[in-house]
Structure formats: structure tokens, C-alpha cells
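[recover] target loaded
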């Protein structure tokens, strides 16, 4: 039972890491092409953007639940529709969650036609739809080839170590950003942990990591 659960976890973590890494590469490559390059990260230390990792995981779970036929073209179209609606809704939810927890936003599509409160747009929903197609064409075959490798002991050890590092990075990134929100609201450090965060993760440092984070304008 433990072995079965670990293998399931390995699959989920593997897909999450691949998706997060693809997101990091995509965001930074896009910024470079646009000629306004600055490093974009989702975590303080690792080159990952977890929003993409969670998005790819959603595609994976939906792919397992939705019935597909033997017609490859129909399957790709179905995945495009799923990605279009689910991806768009997920992006909207991520923007809303960030604003509620950290009182910042990292993107605003209000300048685009057919946007939804600036949190997502028709164009970005189309991108999510294409991402669903790309998931089927490229990531799933890559995952199928990697399943056997993931069962080998050295890779199991690597997954455990990477899981610990990623969990630690996610935790530090979350509490550091949340503490930054409190500082912005004039809340003094209440305990030794918050004092540690103020010393080691001041606003000047976090602003170099989360270069896209902006305080939304209030109407």
C-alpha cells in the first residue's frame, strides 16, 4: 500500500515539477522576446512557477476522468475545450486568491478586449486551450516514457529530496510574502519568526524576486 501511494505521489510531483519548470521557461522567454526582460519566479529559490505546475496537474486529472475515443483529432479538440474553460477559470481564481491573501496582483489584462475583470481574457483562455493540446501531444508521452525510470531507487531518493526542498521553498515563499503584506499594512513583527522574516526577506529583496507583483488600484 505504501509503495502504491508513493508511486502515485511520485507521478503527481513529477508532473507538478515539469509543469512549474515549463512555466518558468515560458514566462522568462516571453519577457525576453518582448524586450523587457527581468527574471520571473514563482518561488524565492527554485526556478519554478507553481501556478503552471498546478494547472498541468489539473489537465492530468481531467484527462484521466474524461472519456476519450480512439479518434486522436477529437480527443485533442476535447482537451482544447477543457483547457479553454478550466484554464481560464483557474487563472481567474489564482489572481483572485493572490489579491485576497497578499493584496497584490501579478497580471492585469484589462487592456485586452474580452477580459474578465482583468484576471483572465479570451486570448489567455485560448492559450490554456492550446496548453491542453500540448499536454496531450508532448507531456503525456514524455511522462509515459519516464514512468519506468521513476520506479528506480535513485530516482525515488531524488524525488524525496526534491519534495522536501520544494515544500520548504513554497513554505518560505508563502510566509515571506504574507509577512510583506503585513509590513505594508504597518503591522509590526509579533514573534521571532516574523522578526527573522523581516531581517532576511525585506521588501527590497522580495521585490527583486516578484517583479510582477503590483498593488491593485482601488476604484
Amino acid at each position: 500500500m505504501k509503495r502504491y501511494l508513493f508511486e502515485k505521489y511520485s507521478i503527481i510531483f513529477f508532473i507538478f515539477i515539469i509543469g512549474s519548470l515549463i512555466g518558468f521557461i515560458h514566462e522568462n522567454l516571453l519577457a525576453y522576446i518582448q524586450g523587457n526582460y527581468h527574471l520571473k519566479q514563482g518561488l524565492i529559490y527554485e526556478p519554478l512557477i507553481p501556478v503552471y505546475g498546478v494547472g498541468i496537474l489539473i489537465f492530468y486529472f481531467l484527462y484521466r476522468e474524461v472519456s476519450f475515443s480512439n479518434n486522436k483529432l477529437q480527443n485533442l479538440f476535447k482537451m482544447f475545450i477543457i483547457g479553454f474553460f478550466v484554464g481560464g477559470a483557474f487563472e481567474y481564481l489564482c489572481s483572485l486568491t493572490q489579491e485576497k491573501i497578499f493584496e497584490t496582483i501579478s497580471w492585469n489584462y484589462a487592456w485586452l478586449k474580452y477580459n474578465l475583470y482583468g484576471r483572465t481574457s479570451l486570448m489567455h483562455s485560448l492559450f490554456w486551450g492550446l496548453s491542453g493540446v500540448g499536454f496531450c501531444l508532448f507531456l503525456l508521452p514524455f511522462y509515459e516514457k519516464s514512468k519506468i525510470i521513476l520506479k528506480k531507487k535513485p530516482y525515488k531518493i531524488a524525488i524525496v529530496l526534491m519534495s522536501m526542498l520544494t515544500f520548504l521553498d513554497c513554505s518560505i515563499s508563502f510566509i515571506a510574502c504574507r509577512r510583506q503584506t503585513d509590513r505594508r499594512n504597518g503591522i509590526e513583527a509579533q514573534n521571532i519568526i516574523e522578526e527573522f522574516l523581516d531581517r532576511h526577506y525585506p521588501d527590497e529583496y522580495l521585490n527583486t524576486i516578484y517583479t510582477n507583483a503590483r498593488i491593485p488600484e482601488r476604484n
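[recover] notes: The beta strands are 115-116, 120-121.
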